[in-house]
């Protein structure tokens, strides 16, 4: 008997994506990868723990993968930047980085930057975390199983 919990991305947003040297939200400019429309699923650690604890004794999760995909947390880089711009009351200067430029930067970067940039590529360019449908024969979605759990949306997180 087993259960897997898959959350994919914590609230780890690398704002200065061009150099990956800042985890602080930007005030003036931001790099957008590809067209900025690639979707990611972003959760807080607390929400991941809450869903995991709910699933421990739940027979519906036995021998299943528990995916944590709350609908308000499936967002693109453009969505995140737009939310942030509304919060700060300012439009950021956007620099678009093509997939080819990002891949070249990954190849030229040293560890651990190559890894961080690779995550940006797989998450925000390829949308690898949202490019599938959960197969009910082996997977369940946490926010559907536990609608009573009040998860933190990306919008709420940006208020913190």
Topology:
Blueprint (H helix, E strand, L loop, with lengths): L2 E4 L2 E2 L18 E5 L5 E5 L1 H11 L8 E4 L6 E3 H12 L4 E5 L1 H10 L4 H13 L13 E3 H4 L8 H5 L2
Parallel strand pairs: 1-5, 2-4, 3-7, 5-8
Antiparallel strand pairs: 4-6
Tell me what the structure shows:
By secondary structure, the chain is of the alpha/beta class. It has a single domain (3-158), classed as UDP-galactose 4-epimerase, domain 1. Helices cover 34% and strands 19% of the residues. It contains six helices and eight strands, in the order ββββαββαβααβαα. A three-stranded parallel sheet has the order 1-5-8. A three-stranded mixed sheet has the order 2-4-6. A two-stranded parallel sheet has the order 3-7. α3 runs antiparallel to α4 (113-125). The longest helix has 13 residues, at 113-125. The radius of gyration is 17 Å and the shape is globular.
Core attributes:
single chain; 34% helix; three-stranded parallel sheet; UDP-galactose 4-epimerase, domain 1; three-stranded mixed sheet; 160 residues; alpha/beta; 8 strands; 6 helices
